[in-house]
């Protein structure tokens, strides 16, 4: 089924819009073996763009491998995922997976089950443990495969910030970087949905992955690009939305990719023929309702100081939280409390900071919070 708007999953084909410049740059880096760290706020389109570039690289001498490590909880969880995906994706046919394992991971007796259909349905459990393989041996795998196959391999790792959560993470990071930085035939594209944690891993001089690759920031897709996309999707369904309302969709959610698609879909669903103010508003309401469960959850366990801090931001306070006036007006406790509040809200990904001050990450959260907590 062809869907008019898609959100919540990575998008491809005609559901993917714009990103011409970024796609070109990322592709160039992949083709030239340059490591990339891809950073953006949540749900902006990192996974989508990496998958797109992967699908666009047709040069047979370049192999792009994509893995997601969101569920890896320990160093060896990661090595198992790393090796499994490499074994699968560098095999041209499903039988070759076994050949790959025999060739590169001789000390294992993996469990494999084939489903009759495509490659992705092969379930493979390698069983790598500290008893059978050293970390360095696994980390060196792509280089060995690349050499043997006479290819350049680009390893893309989604939700890479998980690495920072492992026990003894710093040692592990040093180990990984130590091996990867010497590889001649492999490059890496590392990205993840937790911007705050990703920044910690890559932008701090003291961290092993500091300056590991080119930092690419994925900007918002501009309103000029969104508007024709939205309008054409409406037309495709035999409906109409004015340029003015399509623009307002972007403004309402500050051009955050996923929300633009979600809100546009809500409004499309309400519209019979041509979108009016009323359908627009109902769509926005629906968006807040859809998100409210998640938002409630995010607020659970926050202290009243933290809630008050969010209130202050909603009222336009972005800096000087430690001033007497702000401390008193919003009941934020003592001045020394402020950095703690900030740190924990950053960790929860509710706020973000830039040179000008502190902001809420999520425009829909902001609307919802104002309505629920600041009546
Ligand atoms: N180029 C694009 N064109 C149109 N919509 C897009 C594009 N990129 C992303 N989106 C929208 O944003 C949603 C999230 O995309 P994606 O999962 O790629 O983002 P992400 O940055 O990887 O998210 P997360 O931070 O959760 O990992 C998609 O489902 C889609 O609605
Ligand atoms: Mg993603």
What does this structure look like?
This protein has 375 residues and is an alpha/beta fold. The protein has three domains: 199 residues, P-loop containing nucleotide triphosphate hydrolases (Rossmann fold); 71 residues, Helicase, Ruva Protein, domain 3; 73 residues, Arc Repressor Mutant, subunit A. 49% of the residues lie in helices and 11% in strands. It is built from 16 helices and nine strands. The strands form three sheets. A five-stranded parallel sheet has the order 2-5-6-1-7, sandwiched between helices. Strands 3-4 form a two-stranded antiparallel ribbon. Strands 8-9 form a two-stranded antiparallel sheet. A hairpin with a 2-residue loop joins strand 8 and strand 9. Helix 9 packs across helix 10, helix 11 packs across helix 12 and helix 12 packs across helix 16. The longest helix is centred in the C-terminal third of the chain and has 23 residues. 33% of the residues are buried. The mean pLDDT is 94. Adenosine-5'-triphosphate binds next to helix 2 and helix 11.
Small molecules held by this entry: adenosine-5'-triphosphate, magnesium ion
Number of strands: 9
Helix count, DSSP H or I runs of 4 or more residues: 16
Give the overall silhouette. globular
Count the domains. 3
Q: Structural class, from helix and strand content?
A: alpha/beta
Predict the CATH topology of the largest domain: Rossmann fold
Relevant CATH superfamily of the largest domain: P-loop containing nucleotide triphosphate hydrolases
Helix content: 40-55%
CATH top level of the largest domain is Alpha Beta
- Radius of gyration, taken over Cα atoms and rounded to an integer in Å: 23 Å
Q: Reading side by side through the largest sheet, how are the strands ordered?
A: 2-5-6-1-7
Q: Unreliable stretches, pLDDT < 50, 5 or more residues?
A: none
> Averaging pLDDT over every residue, what do you get?
94
Assess the beta-strand content as a share of residues: 5-15%
Terminal residue distance: 42 Å
Note the quaternary state here. Answer: single chain
Any idea what the CATH architecture of the largest domain is? 3-Layer(aba) Sandwich
What order do the helices and strands follow? Answer: HEHEHHEEHHEHEHEHHHHHHHEEH
């Amino acid at each position: 089924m062809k869907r008019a708007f898609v959100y919540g999953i990575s998008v491809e084909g005609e559901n993917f819009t714009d990103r011409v410049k970024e796609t070109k740059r990322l592709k160039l880096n992949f083709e030239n073996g340059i490591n990339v760290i891809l950073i953006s706020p949540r749900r902006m389109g990192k996974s989508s763009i990496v998958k797109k570039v992967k699908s666009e690289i047709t040069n047979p001498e370049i192999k792009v491998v994509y893995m997601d490590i969101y569920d890896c909880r320990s160093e060896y969880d990661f090595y198992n995922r790393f090796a499994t995906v490499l074994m699968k994706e560098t095999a041209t046919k499903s039988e070759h997976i076994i050949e790959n394992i025999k060739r590169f991971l001789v000390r294992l007796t993996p469990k494999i089950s084939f489903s009759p259909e495509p490659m992705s349905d092969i379930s493979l459990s390698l069983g790598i443990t500290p008893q059978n393989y050293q970390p360095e041996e696994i980390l060196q795998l792509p280089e060995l495969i690349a050499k043997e196959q006479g290819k350049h391999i680009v390893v893309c790792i989604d939700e890479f910030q998980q690495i920072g959560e492992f026990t003894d993470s710093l040692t592990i990071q040093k180990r990984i970087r130590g091996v990867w930085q010497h590889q001649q035939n492999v490059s890496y594209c590392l990205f993840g949905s937790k911007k705050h944690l990703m920044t910690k891993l890559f932008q701090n001089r003291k961290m092993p992955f500091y300056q590991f690759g080119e930092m690419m920031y994925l900007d918002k897709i501009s309103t000029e690009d969104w508007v024709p996309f939205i309008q054409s999707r409406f037309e495709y369904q035999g409906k109409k939305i004015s340029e003015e309302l399509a623009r307002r969709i972007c403004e309402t959610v500050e051009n955050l990719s996923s929300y633009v698609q979600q809100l546009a879909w809500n409004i499309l669903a309400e519209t019979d023929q041509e979108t009016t103010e009323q359908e627009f508003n109902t769509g926005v309401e629906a968006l807040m309702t859809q998100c409210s469960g998640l938002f409630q959850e995010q607020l659970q366990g926050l202290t009243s100081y933290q809630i008050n801090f969010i209130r202050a931001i909603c009222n336009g306070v972005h800096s000087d939280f430690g001033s007497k006036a702000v401390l008193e007006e919003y009941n934020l406790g003592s001045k020394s409390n402020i950095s703690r509040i900030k740190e924990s809200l950053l960790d929860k990904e509710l706020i973000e900071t830039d040179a000008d001050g502190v902001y809420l990450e999520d425009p829909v959260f902001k609307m919802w919070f104002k309505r629920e907590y600041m009546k």
